[in-house]
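stuck on this chain:
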Amino acid sequence: SSSRLHSPHRPNLLLLLPAYHYPKMSLSSSFELLSFQRKVKDALQTVERTLELERKPQLAADVDHTYGAKYGLVNLTSNAAIIAYVNCFEKLGLDAAVLKSIDKTKPATLRFDSSTACKFLQEVKVDVPMERSYEEKEETTGSDASKKTTKTRVMKAVNHVKEFHWEVEVNWSISVYSGTSVEEKKVVKSRTYTTTLITQSKGGMVSTNLPPIELSISWLLQQIDMVELTSQFKVDTEDRDTKTPRRNNAVQKALDFAAQLRQWCQGIESNFFGHFQKHLLQKHNPAVQKPHTFTIRHLLGVNNQYSIFNPILPLMEESGPSDRDDGSNGVESKSIIELQCSNDNNDEHKTLLTSKDISKLLNEHVRTLEGAFSVIEESWPSDSSGDILSSSEAVLSLLSNHLRELSAQYTETMSYIESMMENQLIAAIGKRLTPNDLDKFVKFHNAKLLCPMPQPFCHAIRRPEHYPVGLLSIETQDGGNECIHSHSREVVATSNLKIPLSAATVLELTGLQYLHGYMNHRFGSSHKRHQLVARARQFSSFILVIG
């Protein structure tokens, strides 16, 4: 970017200087700190129950720690997120054998396909009893006048309805493939079933192939040591692009994957389950309705019926665990991917939870997942039942919802760590820095460092030995109307500048010529706007030429 300064009573010369971009310090406004703190504090009860007695983990902001501990916290929570992702993918069929069989030299993609095939079977007429009925009474009198007989005949109305029976085959699958070899994809989970749907109109049932929903899992596989089956995420603190524990290439790639994962799960919920509701369940309309045990509302709300522990938590301890990691955490992992143990026992990381603690939290995550699956298998119909909604669809809905929660929790955790550091910096400085503070800082130090010092760009418009007829300045548009400070020097003109005002009038500028230079500073994402302001005194005028 550049800045342009002009003076109308001097020829219009220009100096371009690159603007210096100061690093961005503020967080995205989408991060809700209080909501995140509430979720973590609700999970602390499970954490305290999972760890040893007299252990009191807290949110990282409530524990005194060093700057290096923030990098360790990012590494721990990122590895916990990776293992939690894999725990869910394992339930979708992406187990250790499949992970090892994927070609790591090519991009790997997880793909969800679904289709429905409809076939008309027959037309059936059904008699549906109506609530309306008619009564007819008939009285007969015998030989004896005192004897009377009454007969009552009740007639019920029946509605004749035509039903159209359709054979519908539904197929959905989750597969993985490398590169562009979609034909060689390996199906890890699928379900194919045939059911009969009944409609009261012959049209409307068509075969559909929903567009595939794909997720790149290359980044996830790069974070896993396939030999040891351990998670190995770590922020490179020596990288020149590493600014803070949150603002670095490693975390940014992790956040990008979390966003893509969330989009993949939302695609399954909106496209696949939305297709279920719109094209299948809603169109099933038999003349005699039978109550359904499970509906699409039960399917989409299955995540709210089970409490699944979320292990992605930015926790620390005041005193730190007494037994630090010594190369093996001593806890048998229930996940196919284990947490890589660290031998870094320096004082910077003494407030962090150990690998043993994180492994216990991840085991609790697996336990709650398996508990939810066992209840679903008992309460929902089996895959072979032929029902439209079975336990496989319930598990798919549960995992897609939970994966979205995991990715959102990881994104909020990274934002929380950056927010914590920002709040600590504001507390140390005593105020939140703004672009105006930077302008004052630059002006103050430029007055000491530069000779001659920059002067305000506010010039009087006058003829020699005459009273000024006006003022010209470049000011900010933020309401302060402060002038910018610029350098200025006189230049030797080889010729006068002539400007034709009309066919018969030419304006010749014979005054002194100056060159102005201005360096614009930017603070974070803020952009100050400037305006050229020309003011003429009463009963005075001048010509301003810009171009």
